[in-house]
Amino acid sequence: QHQRRSEMKVGSYKIHEGGKNGLVEIVDGTLVRTISKRLGKDDRQMIPLKGISSVNHDRKRMKAGEVTIIASGATFTLKVANAVDFVTALHQAIAET
């Protein structure tokens, strides 16, 4: 079972946003943000890694950190569990695109 490097799923991290839980994943050169909804489809957003110009981690608490991602004129602020690991993986994935 051999995957090309560009198709690998780098990581999946739990996020909390607007009172809802979700996931942020790094897949195929894309950052995928999914917020789980009780009814209907999940709220999913795809952000190309090439469009990300800045990643900033605010280390208020050790466990869940606020990560701000600036991409193509839009800013996303995510509360990410294991934020340090997420930011490290995201920087690495951006460097490989």
Element order: H for helix, E for strand: EEEEEEEH
Q: Order of strands side by side in the largest beta sheet? A: 4-3-2-1-7-6-5
Approximate helicity band = 10-25%
- Measured on Cα atoms, how large is the radius of gyration? 13 Å
Q: How many beta-strand runs?
A: 7
Show unreliable segments: 1-8
> Which secondary-structure class do the elements indicate?
mainly beta
**Distance linking N and C termini:** 23 Å
**Major β-sheet annotation:** 7 strands, antiparallel
Q: Could you tell me the mean pLDDT?
A: 84
Give the strand content: over 45%
- Number of helical elements: 1
Descriptive overview:
The structure is a single chain. With 97 residues, the chain is mainly beta. Helix content is 14%, strand content 54%. The chain is built from one helix and seven strands. Strand 1 and strand 2 form a beta hairpin. The longest helix is centred in the last third of the chain and has 14 residues. The chain starts with 8 loop residues before the first strand and ends with a helix. The N terminus is likely disordered.
